[in-house]
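Hello again, I could really use a second opinion on something today. I've been staring at a protein lately and its backbone has me curious. Can you walk me through what the tokens say about the fold? Take your time with it, there's no hurry, and the full record follows here:
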Amino acid sequence: MTLPEQMSGILLVAHGGPEALVWSDTIAVPRPKCGEALIRVAAAGVNNTDINTRTGWYSPDVSGPTEEGATAESGGWAGALEFPRIQGADLCGHVVALGEDTVGPALGARVICPTNQARPTADNPFGFVAIGSEYDGAFAQFCCVSVDQLYDVTTSPLSDIELAAMPCAFGTAANLLSRAGASAGSRILITGASGGVGLAAVALAKALGATVTGICAATKSGAVGKAGAEATIARGEPLPKDSFDIVIDVVGGPGWMGLIDSLRPGGHYAVSGAIAGPMVEADLRRIYLRDITLHGCTYQPPEVFAALVLMINAGQVRPLVSKTYPLREIGTAQADFMSKTYPGKLVLIPPEIPQ
């Protein structure tokens, strides 16, 4: 295709509320450098990562739950962002150009990439960069991605919209389960089980042969059961003690110690989110006397995402997409996401490219 000089998309111009997201029809179309591919974005998922990055929730200056909408100017996990930034951590698109002297997916290939992309160093073996945070992402008609982070999903039976719902949610869930050592027969408790990561964790744990219990609103227990949970516990209800081998948590908040108490001695707790609040109270005796292992999970080894892509291409997993929106309606989409009205994922569709 002949590449246009300009594209439409959403610019994040500062940390803040939805007003910090500005539509523009005059964004320069990026040109891929050596080692990069230019991707025509087909669809982009809505997720907590982009919202938290927009508000600055990852800053230590914010201590409340994500729903409070508190903002901070001090940046996120990697410090202050460069503005304007094109966010969009969930990507499905098609390769339209390669940088000079670059070997990568074929032109026209349908691709996805992990949200958190491994960049280990000698000083930090868990180093990573995130698309839509450290560099521009999928909330526009085009974006550039390093070819070593692209995975070909051309043969997958899933639609572009379904594929765009998977990198952040399923990639995070796969990493949590891997780090916690989930396997056939594991008894696993999953918080936020009706959300994107939660439903993905339910489906992937079920595929492993684990026995899954999900915590969710009672009205969403049907979706969680359909994804593979054998039982559900209504959000806010007491948890059984000493009952699970693994807890997969994206919620945190005041109920955190109940999650630890629900683990059997020797159990594993893995966390990659804290939508109910990042500050928790703990009885350390209940951790060390029962040999509980805690896993903080952000860095994703490439082999974890590669194994997930094999399942995606084989059609072994499929996300629940509840609603789609034109990219320009990102404010509405993110508000709907934060309201927790819909189970699963919401997906944004960028404007068509004139031919």
Summary: The chain has two domains: 6-166+319-349, 170-296. The mean pLDDT is 94. The domain at 170-296 is CATH 3.40.50.720 (Rossmann fold). Residues 214 and 232 are 5 Å apart (CA to CA).
